[in-house]
Amino acid sequence: AFKLYDTYGFPFELTEEILQERGFEVDFSEFKQFMDQQKENARNARESSTGESWSGSAILIEGVSSTRFVGYDKTETQATVIKLYDDQLNPVDQLDNKGYVVLDESVLYAESGGQKGDKGLLKAGMLEALVFDVTKANNDIFIHHVKVLKGLIKAGDSLSVSVDMKERQKTAANHTATHLLHAALKQVLGSHVNQAGSLVESDRLRFDFSHFESLTKDELNKIEYLVNEKIFGNLDTRSESMTLDEAKASGVTALFDSKYGEKVRVISVDDFSSELCGGTHVNNTAQIGMFKILSEAGIASGIRRIEAVTGQLAFSHLKGYEEKTLKLAAQLKTNPEGLEARIEQLLKESKEKDKTIQQFKNEAIKSETESLINDFVEINGIKAFVLDIGTSDANTIRDISDKIRDKNQDAVIVIAAENDGKVLLVATVSKGLVAKGLHAGNIIKQTAQIVGGGGGGRPDFAQAGGKNPLMIKEALEKAKEIIADMTK
Q1: Quick one: how far is CA 450 from the chain centroid?
Q2: Which of 43, 351, 361, 412 is most exposed by smallest CB count within 10 Å?
Q3: What letters, b where the CB count within 10 A reaches 16 and e where it falls short, cover 294-313?
Q4: Residue 48: pLDDT band by 50, 70, 90 thresholds?
């Protein structure tokens, strides 16, 4: 029942009803245990993938109420410095370099829900400080990670806080894109898909979700097309505040195992997507520009991950493909439109050339085999072809070995060749000699040791490699000794 529900989105109640009709019962307590475990897995995946931690999270800031966040409606505000910490997390009265600033109010979004914190500026008189990240401490207190560019920040100072809107807009575009992606995944793959983690930054987005197998190329194309269709559709987004019960009743997508307050914020994109979310978003999907999936992979049992880019970065990614296509077309002396036909033509020509080359190789092997057919020594009444054929490749020496065997009913064949500074060895024993105790695998194993290699195989055929071509002569002499020992 759990697998049907979790993997395929099949309602528990329907499973229960079908089983009851057939005289079976569902163990609801066990179903609930599996559900609780899945929620815990999802929670752990979110925590590991969002990276919601910061170097100063161990600080318990006492005597400070939560920071008032006014960044949904403003891009700049006046705030008072409540507390300061240096880059070693020590409380200080003033700051002239890197450190952490606690304000009573801020327009800068603090990292949460997978969305990275805003960047911005603090200014007052001669003071100018860059805010390069914002995270949360206890009680929703915002910690502004700063680097003072000039002047000093002092406890109690009143200063202006402004958001880097260029960065905010790119992050907002990526965040809204994750909502579109989530809805598209559900539509293409099924209602069983649920968010299992996310990371939203200004230059990329990452979305983890529950699904039981890797996505096909066709599924990825459908998802990407659907997200871009909503972007190009110029759909308005809207933000609403409501109670959690109202949100649940309206069918909003949410991680209801997470902690929420009495009032929740719902972000909707037309009638396509509606989710609980505290992050920043674009006002209209057209502001996203475009959406491009970079990769899709599994990260845990039943959890998949999609990484993607939007806007200018998505365009740059596609432009890169275009430039590679133009370069490839130029190299193949055609235009992009004729590239497919040109590649097919080259593949056909290559196949024909391979066929011709193989014919020449077969003739060469036949000729070489004929020249070697009498190049054997007799060891204890057995024909032993122990040959060094110079430079060759593995396929060729196997073919030569096979052809010598085919022309000699009772023979043992050991062939050595050099290839790219290494040694290739094969040994073949006819069936009749295998029955008498000769073993190709044992012959090749000991022979290969002489050339600094190893290998083995079946009684009738074995192969090996080695590192020292200078020892081929000694190795073949060893092969003769081994054959002699086996045929005493």
Answers
A1: 44
A2: 351
A3: eebeeebebbbbbebbbbeb
A4: very low
Q: Are residues 307 and 202 in the same domain?
A: yes
- Number of helices followed by number of strands (H, E) in the chain: 12, 24
Answer yes or no: do 141 and 205 share one domain: no
Q: Which domain holds residue 477?
A: 373-486
CA distance 265 to 267: 7
| Strand, helix or coil for residue 184 | helix
User: Residues 95, 97, 99, 101: is their CA dihedral positive or negative?
Assistant: positive
274 in the same domain as 233: yes
Q: Indicate if 145 and 249 belong to the same structural domain.
A: no
Q: DSSP characters for 337-387? A: GGHHHHHHHHHHHHHHHHHHHHHHHHHHHHHHHHHHTT--EEETTEEEEEE
Phi-psi region of 140 (alpha: psi -120 to 50; beta: other; left: phi over 0): left
- At 37 the pLDDT is 72
Q: What is the pLDDT of residues 328-338, one digit of tens each?
A: 999 999 999 99
> Residue 479: inside a domain, yes or no?
yes
- Token digits of residue 240: 């609403």
User: At 287, which helix (H) or strand (E)?
Assistant: none
Question: Do 129 and 94 lie in a common domain?
Answer: yes
pLDDT cut 70: percent of the chain above it: 89
Does the predicted TM-score (pTM) go above 0.70? Answer: no
Q: How many CB atoms lie within 10 A of CB 47?
A: 12
d(CA 273, CA 321): 31
Structure tokens at 433: 């000699």
| Alpha helices for 90-233 (secondary structure H) | 165-189, 217-232
Q: Can you tell me which residue has the tokens 């475009």? A: 290
Examine the domain organization and report whether 220 and 309 are in the same domain: yes
Lowest mean pLDDT segment, chosen from 216-220, 356-360, 451-455, 481-485: 356-360
Question: Could you identify the residue written with the tokens 């066990």?
Answer: 30
87 and 117 Cβ atoms separated by less than 8 Å: no
